[in-house]
């Protein structure tokens, strides 16, 4: 059953579909929540809220803007960032961040023959200078503004902005070179 | 508040796509985007990249009982009051058609299917199994599938149809085809550039459904589906 059909079932309160929907996406949603918060208990609360919000706003989903999973992960990320901001703390230490950058650059399927867009993106991240990938990760997964990235990294605001802009530009160019439309 | 110009927008479009712009800057950027199609496309492209970055995060096994707790939360106070039709929206059929087939398990000896998520190993609890009928839409003017129709036979019973004809706007009517050819109109969808989707719970008694049909407002058959 397509993700879109599952979401349609969610809007009519079909309990079987609700369970199937949660089962299909719970690993990704929980993983996304943990990637931002770095705390299993908080990640569970965020993930539960993400499903609840998806359920409440299912009729607002517009498939022309992207797949269901991307929509759901955006909800998750935003909720996780809201929680971090409310608690005025960031989920990870600097060493965790370095590990996460390395993990993202390596990717879970790099040893396989997979050559999908995700794998190519992993490769492209691996080619970024470390300071650029760190800035990118702080913004993408911690929800930090450029000013917050600058503070966390101890660099001028202009440098943080440049790192973010350059990193995104390189990733897009890299994917375009490989024939992937970002 | 001052609106950004194109140059300023380009300099911060990556931050905007990543959600890394401060509030005032974001508001200033959005003012500009309201009327600049070129910058809209730039930000859209980068936002797609930002979404792809989020998608890279690996899956993690949630704590034991997570699924049960979430479903209970969805069934909590207010859940039974919420009941609405899905709004008509366009879909990219080639993307979802492949996914539509994934995860289907045939019900032994029945005319329908059951929903089961085969994409990952589930927790020890029994897999949810909801019988449904499914068929892909076809049209004489198109080669290949142009949409899909589902009827879920659980409680509530619900119908989901989606189609992409390639062109055409306006209201189209959604029918279920019962054995013997009797048509039962169950809803309508709003076509935009030929695509649209509709879904809702069905209150009317529905028996022996063999397929689905989408017709234009003046009765032309736009697409038909035969259920497996």
Summarize the structure.
The complex is a heterodimer of chains A (182) and B (228). Chain A has 182 residues and is mainly α.
Q: Describe it for me?
A:
The complex is a heterodimer of chains A (182) and B (228). Helices cover 74% and strands 0% of the residues of chain A. Chain A has 9 helices and no strands. Mean pLDDT of chain A is 81; it is low at 109-114. Chain B folds into 2 domains: 6-55, no CATH class; 85-226, Immunoglobulin-like, CATH 2.60.40. Helices cover 27% and strands 29% of the residues of chain B. In chain B, strands 1, 2, 3, 4, 5, 6, 7, 8, 9 and 10 form a 10-stranded antiparallel sheet that branches. In chain B, helix 1 packs parallel to helix 3 (37-55). At the A-B interface, helix 1, helix 2, helix 3, helix 4 and helix 6 of A face helix 1, helix 3, helix 4, helix 5 and strand 4 of B.
**Would you tell me the overall average pLDDT of chain A?**
81
CA-based gyration radius of chain B: 22 Å
Assembly state of the chains shown: heterodimer
- Give the total of beta strands of chain A: 0
Any idea of the CATH class of the largest domain in chain B? Mainly Beta
String of helices and strands of chain B: HHHHHEEEEEEEEEE
Give the CATH H-level superfamily of the largest domain in chain A.
RNA polymerase sigma factor, region 2, helix turn helix motif
Category by helix and strand content of chain B = alpha+beta
Given as residue ranges, the uncertain stretches of chain B (5+ residues, pLDDT < 50) are: 80-124
Helicity level of chain A, as a percent range?
over 70%
Unreliable stretches of chain A, pLDDT < 50, 5 or more residues? 109-114
CATH class of the largest domain in chain A: Mainly Alpha
Please give the most extensive interface between any two protein chains, plus how many residues each contributes.
Answer: A-B, 83 and 82 residues
Q: Largest sheet of chain B, described in full?
A: 10 strands, antiparallel
CATH topology assignment of the largest domain in chain A: Rna Polymerase Sigma Factor, Chain: A
């Amino acid at each position: 059953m397509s993700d879109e059909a599952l979401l349609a079932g969610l809007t009519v309160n079909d309990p079987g579909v609700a369970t199937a929907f949660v089962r299909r996406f719970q690993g990704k949603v929980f993983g996304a929540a943990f990637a931002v918060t770095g705390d299993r208990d908080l990640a569970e609360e965020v993930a539960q809220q993400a499903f609840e919000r998806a359920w409440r706003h299912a009729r607002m989903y517009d498939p022309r803007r992207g797949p269901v999973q991307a929509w759901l992960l955006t909800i998750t990320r935003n909720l996780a960032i809201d929680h971090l901001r409310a608690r005025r703390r960031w989920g990870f230490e600097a060493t965790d961040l370095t590990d996460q950058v390395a993990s993202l650059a390596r990717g879970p399927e790099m040893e396989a023959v997979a050559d999908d867009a995700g794998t190519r993106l992993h490769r492209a991240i691996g080619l970024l200078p470390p300071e650029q990938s760190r800035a990118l990760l702080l913004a993408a997964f911690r929800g930090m503004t450029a000013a917050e990235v600058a503070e966390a990294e101890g660099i001028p605001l202009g440098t943080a902005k440049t790192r973010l802009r350059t990193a995104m530009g390189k990733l897009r160019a890299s994917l375009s070179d490989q024939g992937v439309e970002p | 508040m001052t609106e950004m110009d194109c140059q300023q927008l380009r300099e911060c479009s990556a931050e905007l796509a990543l959600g890394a712009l401060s509030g005032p800057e974001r508001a200033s950027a959005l003012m500009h985007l309201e009327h600049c199609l070129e910058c809209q496309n730039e930000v859209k492209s980068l936002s797609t990249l930002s979404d792809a970055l989020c998608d890279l995060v690996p899956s993690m096994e949630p704590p034991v009982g997570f699924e049960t707790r979430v479903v209970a939360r969805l069934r909590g106070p207010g859940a039974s009051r919420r009941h609405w039709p899905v709004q008509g929206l366009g879909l990219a059929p080639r993307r979802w058609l492949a996914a539509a087939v994934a995860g289907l398990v045939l019900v032994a000896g029945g005319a329908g299917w059951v929903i089961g998520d085969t994409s990952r190993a589930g927790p020890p609890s029994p897999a949810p199994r909801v019988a449904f009928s499914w068929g892909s839409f076809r049209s004489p003017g198109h080669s290949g599938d142009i949409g899909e129709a589902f009827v879920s036979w659980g409680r509530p019973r619900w119908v989901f149809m989606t189609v992409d004809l390639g062109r055409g706007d306006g209201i189209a009517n959604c029918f279920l085809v019962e054995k013997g050819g009797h048509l039962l109109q169950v809803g309508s969808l709003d076509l935009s550039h030929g695509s649209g989707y509709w879904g809702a719970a069905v209150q009317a008694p529905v028996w022996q459904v063999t397929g689905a049909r989408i017709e234009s407002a003046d009765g032309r058959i736009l697409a038909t589906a035969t259920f497996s």
